[in-house]
Specification:
single chain, alpha/beta, Rossmann fold, Alpha-Beta Plaits, 2 domains, six-stranded parallel sheet, about 25% strand, elongated
Length: about 220
Amino acid sequence: MQRVIVIGLGIFGFNIVKELYENGFEVIAVDKNKDAIQRVRDFATKAILADGTDHEVMDLIGVHEDDVAIISFGEDLAAATLITLHLKQMRVKNIIVKAPNEEHKLILEKVGATDVLIPEKEIAGKVAKSLISPNVLDCLPLSDGYMIYEIAPPHGFLGKSIGELQLRSKYHVEVIAVRDVLTDQVHMVPRADLVLKDGEVLVVIAREKDIQKIK
C-alpha cells in the first residue's frame, strides 16, 4: 500500500490518520502541537512533532513522489499554500488539501494541489440530499449531471422484479447492482427476474432530477 503523510491533526486530520491506519496503511502524522501528537500516537505508523511548513521536515521524513500527502490546516491558507508548494517542488504526485471555501480551493489548485476538499460543503450537500430524497443512502458524482446512488427501495418496490419495476423506461434510472445490507452480498448487473427483498438496496446511475421521482 502507498504511504500517506498527513500534515495537520485537527478533527479532520486525526480521523483520516486513524481510518487509514486501521485499514493497513503506513501513515506518517505530522503536527507542531504536542497534544495532537500524543492523541494520534497509537493510531499512526509514526507521529512526528514538527512544523509541517518547514521544508527540512519533509526532507527528513524522506517524502517520495509516490507518497500521498494530505494537508489539513483549517483556515490557515498561508500554511496550506506553503506546504503544497514544497510538496509540488518535491514532485509529489498526489497532494490532497482541506480548504474552508471555494476561494481557498482555487488558490490551492493554482499552486499544485491535485485534489481540494471542502468537507463542510460536502456534508451540507449530503444532508440536503437526504431531505430532498429521503431514500437516498449515499451518492457519488460522475459527470454531465449523472451520479451513482445507493437507495433504499420504496415499500412498493419490494416483492417485484427489476423487470417489473421498469426503472429505466419509467424513471431513466439504470440499476447496476443490488446489495443485501445484512450479508453484504452484491448482485452486479442484476437480471430482470431478480425480485427485491426487504433489507436490499439498489445501486443505480441517474440524474438527480430523476432519482427524486423515486419516493
